[in-house]
C-alpha cells in the first residue's frame, strides 16, 4: 500500500507538470494563465488548509501525552537538551555547507539577467525577526490565539508546561491524559482521511506553478536552481552518512520509510503537509511515541536544515549578482546572525525570504535582490521543504538512540503448513 501511494504521488506530480505545460502553451497571456492557475491551485489550498486544521490539535495532544508519560521533569529536560544540541549542530553544518558551496560555485557571478533597481522594495516585513520580538514570541499571549494562527513554537511551549504539570499531578491527571491520548488517536484517524487527497494536491500544486511560470523559468535560472539542488544533494548525502554512523544499514531503512513524507513535502513545498505522515512512519522505524511527539514538533521550529542552507546560499547569490564582495569575517558574522534569526521561521509566511531580507538589511545589501529569486522561490521551496523532512527524521531517530532505544525490526510471522502440504 505504501509503495502504491508513493507511485500515485509521483504520477500526480508528472501529470501536473504535463497539464501545467499544456495550459501555459494554450493560454500564454499572463493574466489568463494566472486565473487558470488560481482555479487549479484550489485543490492544493484546500489540502494545505486541511493539514493546518489538524496540526495544532495533533502537536498539542501528542506532545502533552509524550511528556506526561515521561513522568519525571528531569527526563523532559534531558531529552530537550539532547534535541537542542543536535538542532544547533545541524543548523551550523547546514549554514556552513551553504556558505562554502555558494563561494565555490558562484551562481550569482556573470548573471545574464537585468538586475532590479537596488532601491526597489519587496514589501516583506523584516522587523518581525528582531531578537527581542523572537524571545517574546516564544510565549503565547493566549493558547487559543496560538492554535488559531498555527504558531507551532508557541503551541510547543504551552504543551510542555501542560505535559509537565500532568506528570507532576500523577494519578490525579491520569484520566485527563488518557482523554488527550484518545484525542490524538482521533486526530490521527482524521489525518488518514486527509492524506488520501495528497496525490490530487500534488497534481494541482505542480500544474498551477507550471501554468504561470512555464518550464522556461527553470532554463533562465538554470544555473542557480541546479547548483542549489546540487548543494541540497550534498547535504542529503552528508545526513545519510551521519545516519549510517549512528544506525549502520538501518539508515537506508529510515530513508525508505520517510520517502512518502519527503515526496509530499517536495511536491507541495510545505513541510507541514508531511508532518502527520512523518509521525506515522517514524513509529515503524521503530521510535517510541513519546520521543516522536516531543522531538518532532521542536524540530519544526529549530531544525530546518534545508531552509538554513538556502538562507546562506540565497544571500550570497544576491551579493554576487550585484558584485558586492563580502570578506570571510563578514560571512561568518552573517552565518551566526542567520543562526539566531532563522529560529523565528516557524509560522512566518514565506519565512526564508523574510529571514534573507533581514540579513540583507543588516549587511547593507540591496533588498531588491530578492526580486531575482521570488519568481522561482516555489521551485526552491520544494527542495528545502523535503530536506527539512530528512533532517527532522534523522534528528528524532538520533535522540531516540541517545535515550537508549533499540531498533527492533518487526518479523513477519511464518505461515505454518500442515504436515504433507507442499
Q: Brief overview, please?
A:
This protein is mainly alpha-helical. It contains 20 helices and no strands. Mean pLDDT is 79; it is low at 412-422.
Topology:
Blueprint: H1 2-26, H2 30-40, H3 42-70, H4 73-105, H5 131-138, H6 143-148, H7 152-169, H8 174-195, H9 198-213, H10 216-220, H11 222-247, H12 250-257, H13 259-268, H14 275-283, H15 289-302, H16 305-321, H17 328-341, H18 351-362, H19 371-374, H20 377-402
Helix pairs in contact: 1-9, 1-13, 2-9, 3-7, 3-8, 3-9, 3-15, 4-11, 4-15, 4-16, 4-17, 4-20, 11-12, 11-16, 11-20, 13-20, 14-15, 15-20, 16-18, 16-20, 17-18
Which terms would index this structure?
mainly alpha, 20 helices
Beta-strand level of the residues, as a percent range?
A: under 5%
* Uncertain segments: 412-422
Q: How many E-type strands?
A: 0
**Helix-strand topology string:** HHHHHHHHHHHHHHHHHHHH
Mean pLDDT: 79
Q: Whole-number radius of gyration? A: 22 Å
What structural category arises from helix and sheet content?
A: mainly alpha
**Can you give the helix content as a percent range?**
over 70%
Most strands sheet = none
Principal-axes geometry comes out as globular
Written account of the structure:
The chain has helices spanning 2-26, 30-40, 42-70, 73-105, 131-138, 143-148, 152-169, 174-195, 198-213, 216-220, 222-247, 250-257, 259-268, 275-283, 289-302, 305-321, 328-341, 351-362, 371-374, 377-402. Helix 4 (73-105) packs parallel to helix 16. The chain contains 20 helices and no strands. Mean pLDDT is 79; it is low at 412-422. It has 422 residues and is mainly alpha-helical. Helices cover 74% and strands 0% of the residues.
Amino acid at each position: 500500500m505504501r509503495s502504491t501511494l508513493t507511485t500515485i504521488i509521483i504520477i500526480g506530480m508528472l501529470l501536473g507538470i504535463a497539464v501545467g505545460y499544456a495550459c501555459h502553451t494554450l493560454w500564454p497571456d499572463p493574466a489568463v494563465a494566472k486565473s487558470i492557475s488560481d482555479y487549479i491551485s484550489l485543490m492544493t489550498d484546500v489540502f494545505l488548509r486541511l493539514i493546518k486544521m489538524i496540526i495544532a490539535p495533533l502537536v498539542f495532544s501528542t506532545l502533552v501525552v509524550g511528556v506526561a508519560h515521561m513522568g519525571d521533569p528531569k527526563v523532559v529536560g534531558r531529552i530537550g537538551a539532547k534535541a537542542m544540541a543536535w538542532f544547533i549542530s545541524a543548523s551550523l553544518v547546514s549554514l556552513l555547507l551553504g556558505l562554502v558551496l555558494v563561494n565555490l560555485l558562484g551562481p550569482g557571478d556573470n548573471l545574464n539577467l537585468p538586475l532590479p533597481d537596488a532601491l526597489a522594495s519587496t514589501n516583506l516585513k523584516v522587523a518581525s525577526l528582531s531578537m527581542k520580538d523572537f524571545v517574546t514570541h516564544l510565549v503565547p499571549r493566549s493558547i487559543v490565539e496560538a492554535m488559531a494562527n498555527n504558531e507551532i513554537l508557541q503551541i510547543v511551549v504551552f504543551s510542555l508546561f501542560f505535559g509537565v504539570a500532568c506528570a507532576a499531578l500523577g494519578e490525579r491527571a491520569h484520566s485527563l491524559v488518557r482523554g488527550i491520548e484518545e484525542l490524538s488517536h482521533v486526530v490521527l484517524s482524521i489525518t488518514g482521511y486527509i492524506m488520501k487527497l495528497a496525490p490530487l494536491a500534488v497534481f494541482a500544486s505542480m500544474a498551477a506553478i507550471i501554468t504561470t511560470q512555464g518550464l522556461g523559468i527553470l532554463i533562465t535560472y538554470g544555473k542557480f536552481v541546479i547548483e542549489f539542488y546540487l548543494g541540497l544533494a550534498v547535504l542529503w548525502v552528508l545526513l545519510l552518512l551521519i545516519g549510517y554512523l549512528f544506525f549502520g544499514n538501518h539508515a537506508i531503512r529510515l530513508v525508505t520509510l520517510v520517502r512518502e513524507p519527503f515526496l509530499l513535502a517536495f511536491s507541495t513545498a510545505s513541510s507541514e503537509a508531511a508532518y502527520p505522515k512523518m509521525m506515522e512512519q517514524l513509529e515503524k522505524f521503530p521510535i517510541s511515541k513519546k520521543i516522536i511527539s516531543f522531538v518532532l514538533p521542536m524540530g519544526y521550529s529549530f531544525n530546518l536544515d534545508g531552509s538554513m542552507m538556502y538562507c546562506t546560499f540565497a544571500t550570497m547569490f544576491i551579493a554576487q549578482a550585484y558584485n558586492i564582495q563580502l570578506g570571510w569575517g563578514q560571512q561568518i558574522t552573517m552565518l551566526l546572525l542567520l543562526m539566531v534569526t532563522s529560529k523565528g521561521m516557524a509560522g512566518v509566511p514565506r519565512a526564508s525570504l523574510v529571514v534573507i531580507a533581514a540579513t540583507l538589511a543588516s549587511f547593507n545589501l540591496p533588498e531588491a535582490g530578492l526580486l531575482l529569486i521570488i519568481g522561482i522561490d516555489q521551485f526552491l521551496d520544494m527542495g528545502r521543504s523535503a530536506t527539512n523532512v530528512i533532517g527532522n527524521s534523522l534528528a528524532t531517530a538520533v535522540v531516540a538512540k541517545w535515550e537508549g532505544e533499540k531498533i527492533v525490526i518487526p518479523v513477519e510471522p511464518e505461515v505454518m503448513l500442515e504436515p504433507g502440504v507442499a
